[in-house]
Design a protein that fits this description.
Layout (H helix, E strand, L loop, with lengths): L8 E5 H4 L4 E6 L2 E8 L2 E6 L13 E3 L2 E3 L6 E3 L16 E2 L1 E4 L2 E4 L29 E6 L12 H17 L2 E6 L11 H4 L9 H5 L5 H11 L2 E7 L7 H9 L1 H10 L8 E7 L5 H14 L9 E4 L8 H9 L2 H26 L9 H16 L1
Parallel strand pairs: 11-12, 11-13, 13-14, 14-15
Antiparallel strand pairs: 1-10, 2-3, 3-4, 4-8, 5-6, 6-7, 9-10
Helix pairs in contact: 2-10
The structure holds FE2/S2 (inorganic) cluster.
Length: 375
């Protein structure tokens, strides 16, 4: 429906609209947040400056409309952002009451304004820097920080990283997820797929949230991602799930924005438990990392359990700790991943990509990046 800009739009009966302090109304295709505070109507754009959240579906906090997606605030009469962010404003519309009806001027009284926000460092375009294969280990074992204990999966992961560095000249990094202080995914995706942003909205809003280290490692640094988990009642560790729920924003970029954050990445897994269900855990891990765009080597996980009735966990620990074959298996897994990453990287970026400062690699990378940026 086309709006005649000179015509005020009747959005409903005043007594009915006054029953709700905040609601979304439509002026043709334009969404408006209609406010009724202390008996006074006012109207601002219903589209949030941040990621387009529906302001009229938020709530009123004093004089401010709070966006339901990530809680930015806008003054209910002026549309200005909260103190300190006044420049971040949404258009305000005039409202009048005539014959018991609420009329809104479709022509905004003020313009939308955006306070310049420096882009989050993670928002940069992923671009592989030339240099050796980089292997990121993610240990998802939980334990008391001040009283560390032996972990079978972390032991095998550490060994795989050592061998990747020692045997193949890789750069390696181990992130123990338990050392990171980060919030659970708060389900912005459940409000709207567009409310799930990259970088994650929590990361953008909370500088103390340390999930940024996982994002930096996975998206911008690693060629190989080795994930280690214990088996906990037939599933991966709770820290694994806490971490991958926060990685939904990476997968969401694929499905909603058509943006591939992970390219040429290899993932593989180390799964250990006193009891069973290796296949179930592996299926979970493979499914998720496939969906964020990773490739897998042949035989993409190593695992060990001693079966359902093996309750003597102390013996399980001793067995893994002293098992040369399990450690060799972890090293072999790293070797398969590194070989696969080398093939993928050199075939798309050239041999020089694996040499730090290699000109050929840089030129090819720039060329590939231009194609990625243009797509
Ligand atoms: S705060 Fe409104 S869309 Fe993010």
């Amino acid at each position: 429906m086309q709006i005649d800009p000179s015509a005020w739009i009747d959005v409903g009966a005043a007594d009915e609209l006054a029953a709700r302090p905040l609601q979304q109304v439509s002026l043709g295709r334009k969404k408006i947040a209609l406010i009724c505070k202390d008996g006074q109507f006012s109207a601002i754009s219903g589209v949030c400056n941040h990621a387009g959240g529906p302001l009229g579906e938020g709530k009123l906090d004093g004089d401010y409309v709070v966006c339901p997606w990530h809680y930015w605030k806008f003054h209910c009469r002026t549309g200005e952002g909260e103190p300190g962010y006044e420049e971040d404003r949404v258009p305000a519309h005039d409202v009048r009451i005539e014959n018991g009806r609420v009329l809104v001027d479709p022509e905004a009284r003020t313009k939308r304004g955006r306070k310049p926000h420096a882009p989050h460092p993670l928002a940069r375009t992923p671009q592989r820097e030339p240099g050796p294969i980089r292997v990121l280990g993610l240990s998802t074992t939980a334990m008391t920080a001040a009283q560390p204990r032996y972990s079978t999966s972390e032991d095998l992961l550490s060994h795989a990283l050592q061998r990747a560095a020692g045997d193949h000249g890789c750069e390696t990094q181990l992130l123990r997820i338990r050392d990171l202080n980060f919030r659970e995914c708060e389900g912005f995706y459940s409000k709207s797929s567009r409310a799930c942003t990259w970088p994650c909205s929590i990361t953008q809003m909370d500088s103390s949230d340390q999930m940024d280290r996982v994002y930096e490692g996975v998206v911008h640094w690693a060629d190989v991602i080795l994930v280690a988990t214990p088996i906990r009642w037939g599933g991966a560790s709770s820290l694994y799930y806490k971490m991958v729920e926060r990685m939904n924003c990476i997968q969401n970029q694929e499905t909603v924005a058509g943006r591939h954050l992970l390219r040429n990445k290899v993932a593989a897994f180390i799964i250990t438990g006193g009891q069973d269900n290796v296949q179930g855990v592996a299926g979970q891990l493979l499914g998720f990392f496939a969906e964020v765009g990773c490739q897998f080597p042949q035989f993409p996980y190593v695992a060990h359990t001693r079966g359902w009735s093996a309750e003597d966990m102390e013996n399980n620990e001793k067995f893994v700790q002293h098992s040369a074959s399990l450690h060799d298996g972890a090293a072999a897994l790293a070797r398969r991943c590194v070989a696969m990453a080398q093939v993928m990287i050199t075939s798309s970026l050239g041999e020089g990509a694996l040499v730090r400062g290699g000109r050929k690699g840089q030129q090819l990378e720039s060329a590939v990046q231009r194609v990625v940026d243009a797509s």
